[in-house]
């Protein structure tokens, strides 16, 4: 009996050893091949799509001392300063070396993976396995294309009646949408818009000026036929009497034309005290709505150095094949503001409560964390995101770009997600310290890099529907309804609660339920949602879907032609063929 068991063990162990030896031999060949670079040199874009983010510009970088974070764990080898210049890596990709790296990882994994399971494993990562194509398939765009040109009776700005001063507030995307709304307000009240001042005083303490984050000259020139924009208030008006006006939230065209416009009778300069969410989402003239889209998607592009770095990050993610951009809003400011503490230690929860109490402009101080979570008003935790992605069917080899600032708790809270999806990338480990130096101490500029990668990703998934999530979703809709999966947090929390109670386990049942919940939450064309039925006045206005989350029908029109969006679809479905070939070779080896 004992001999039979030994024979069985030898029978199972022998092929395992053969595979391990094969892996090691291939790894040795790869190592002897020479230098490897993970990322190919960025490819020049041949797309003629006028709505793509602008092309990159040359710029220089300087060095910065490294800051150790969880993001350094998978830093690609091309970032070693001894291997390459701090700007762009130069060496070509070595198939043997990359194959060797993959096989070595597999060989290491074999210690813990039963042989039958290993042999059944299909390497259907983001490179393009047919079984996973449906995961990356675009929602049906139904031939909706941008239509933002003004009507035939739209005129260039007349001699303006005065100057509108704006000081922004909030994070990058709050500032973006607010700036675009103020462009529309300036048009309505016939004002010259002075280039807005960016927020330097609130939580983020970013010292960036407008020209550090956005392409100032392009902004001015692109709006020349809509609104006159100047960089500074004329000197002769610097001592003029100004009125500081609190524009009413979510206000109408009539309010700005009649109430705010009447102020020109006494003043030549109006300063907007607050500027975010000052313009209603709906019931505005068509030309004003189209102007908002021109401002947001054409005029307000990022500064050349940010566009260039963003393009570089996208190219490096593309070298892995299809990828997800995950807006993981598990950051200290978000958790403190929302009062969400699920999965945190008592000490962490206390720290967040202290931050909330000490932040003066956050009005709500007492928050029931459990009630907040079950209402779906908390961001998903990294662990919950991992369960969610797995249930949707994304394989563990899926490359994921983490579009976020510093994750609260770092390695501790990222451990579960990383164990499920090892290819977690971020700007910090896709770029060298020297490449990121110009942006590192500026939260708005770092957020802009995440914005660019998120817009250009194959799939965008936000863990929370905040300002960035809404802005990116709207931009992706404008560019051809690129796939955006919006988690139903309330529904997911209910399922996660059942799992915690032992009533539900990961597997086909959970997967089927999550897929069913989200089949209509993937960015398909639909008209922008209005106010919630039964709500009145301002309450109803605030319950509307935000204009910049879904610019349909104002800025997207359906055309009869069958091939309207061909270029957009082709660019989004493009797969890195070299990655496919390498995976096929790996399958043959195994």
TrEMBL record:
What is the phylogenetic placement of the source species in the record? Answer: Eukaryota, Viridiplantae, Streptophyta, Embryophyta, Tracheophyta
Gene Ontology biological process terms, A to Z:
fucose metabolic process
Provide the topology term for how it sits in the membrane: Single-pass type II membrane protein
The biological pathway it contributes to is: Glycan metabolism
Question: Keyword annotations for this protein?
Answer: Carbohydrate metabolism, Fucose metabolism, Glycoprotein, Glycosyltransferase, Membrane, Signal-anchor, Transferase, Transmembrane, Transmembrane helix
Q: Which domain of life is it from?
A: Eukaryota
Question: Which organism does this record belong to?
Answer: Gossypium lobatum
A GO molecular-function annotation: glycosyltransferase activity
Compartment(s): Membrane
Main location (coarse class): membrane
Q: Which family does it belong to?
A: Belongs to the glycosyltransferase GT106 family.
| Protein name from the UniProt record | O-fucosyltransferase family protein
Could you state one GO cellular component term attached to this entry?
membrane
InterPro entries associated with the record: FucosylTrfase_pln, GDP-Fuc_O-FucTrfase
């Amino acid at each position: 009996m004992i001999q039979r068991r030994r024979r069985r063990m030898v029978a199972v162990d022998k092929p395992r050893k053969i595979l391990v030896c094969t892996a090691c031999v291939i790894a040795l060949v790869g190592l002897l091949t020479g230098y490897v670079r993970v990322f190919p040199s960025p490819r020049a874009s041949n797309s003629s799509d006028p709505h793509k983010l602008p092309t990159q510009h040359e710029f220089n970088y300087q060095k910065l001392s490294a800051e150790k974070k969880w993001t350094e764990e998978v830093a690609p080898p091309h970032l070693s300063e001894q291997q390459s210049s701090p700007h762009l890596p130069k060496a070509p990709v070595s198939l043997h070396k990359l194959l060797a790296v993959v096989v070595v990882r597999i060989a290491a994994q074999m210690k813990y993976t039963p042989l039958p399971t290993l042999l059944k494993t299909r390497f259907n990562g983001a490179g393009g396995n047919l079984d996973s194509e449906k995961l990356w398939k675009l929602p049906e765009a139904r031939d909706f294309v941008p239509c933002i040109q003004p009507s035939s009776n739209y005129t260039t700005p007349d001699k303006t009646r005065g100057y509108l001063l704006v000081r922004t507030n909030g994070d990058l995307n709050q500032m973006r949408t607010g700036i675009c709304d103020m462009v529309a307000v300036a048009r309505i009240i016939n004002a010259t818009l002075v280039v807005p001042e960016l927020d330097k005083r609130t939580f983020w303490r970013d010292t960036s000026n407008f020209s550090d984050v956005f392409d100032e000259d392009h902004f001015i020139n692109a709006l020349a036929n809509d609104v006159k924009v100047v960089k500074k208030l004329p000197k002769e008006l610097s001592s003029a009497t100004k009125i500081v006006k609190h524009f009413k939230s979510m206000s109408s065209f009539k309010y700005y034309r009649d109430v705010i416009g009447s102020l020109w009778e006494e003043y030549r300069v109006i300063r907007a005290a607050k500027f975010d969410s000052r313009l209603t989402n709906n019931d505005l003239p068509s030309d004003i709505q189209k102007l908002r889209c021109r401002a947001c998607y054409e005029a307000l592009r990022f500064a050349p150095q940010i566009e260039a770095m963003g393009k570089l990050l996208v190219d490096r993610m593309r070298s892995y094949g299809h990828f997800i951009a995950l807006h993981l809003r598990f950051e200290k400011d978000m958790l403190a503001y929302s009062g969400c503490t699920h999965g945190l230690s008592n000490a962490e929860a206390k720290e967040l409560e202290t931050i909330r109490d000490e932040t003066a402009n956050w009005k709500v101080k007492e928050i029931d964390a459990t009630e907040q979570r079950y209402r779906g008003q908390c961001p998903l935790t990294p662990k919950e995101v991992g369960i969610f992605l797995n249930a949707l069917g994304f394989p563990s080899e899926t490359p994921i770009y983490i579009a976020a600032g510093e994750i609260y708790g770092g390695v501790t809270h990222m451990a579960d997600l990383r164990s499920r999806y090892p290819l977690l990338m971020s700007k910090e480990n896709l770029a060298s310290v020297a490449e990121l130096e110009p942006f590192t101490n500026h939260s708005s500029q770092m957020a802009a890099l995440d914005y660019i990668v998120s817009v250009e990703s194959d799939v965008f998934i936000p863990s929370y529907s905040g300002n960035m999530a809404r802005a990116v979703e709207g931009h992706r809709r404008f560019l051809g309804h690129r796939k955006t999966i919006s988690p139903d947090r309330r529904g997911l929390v209910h399922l996660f609660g059942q799992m915690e109670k032992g009533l539900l386990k990961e597997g086909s049942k959970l997967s089927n339920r999550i897929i069913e919940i989200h089949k209509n939450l993937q960015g398909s064309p639909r008209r922008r949602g209005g106010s919630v039925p039964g709500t009145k006045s301002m309450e109803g206005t605030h319950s509307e879907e935000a204009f910049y989350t879904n610019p349909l029908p104002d800025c997207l029109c359906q055309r009869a032609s069958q091939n309207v969006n061909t270029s957009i679809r082709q660019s989004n479905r493009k797969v890195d063929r070299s990655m496919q070939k390498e995976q096929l070779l790996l399958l043959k080896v195994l």
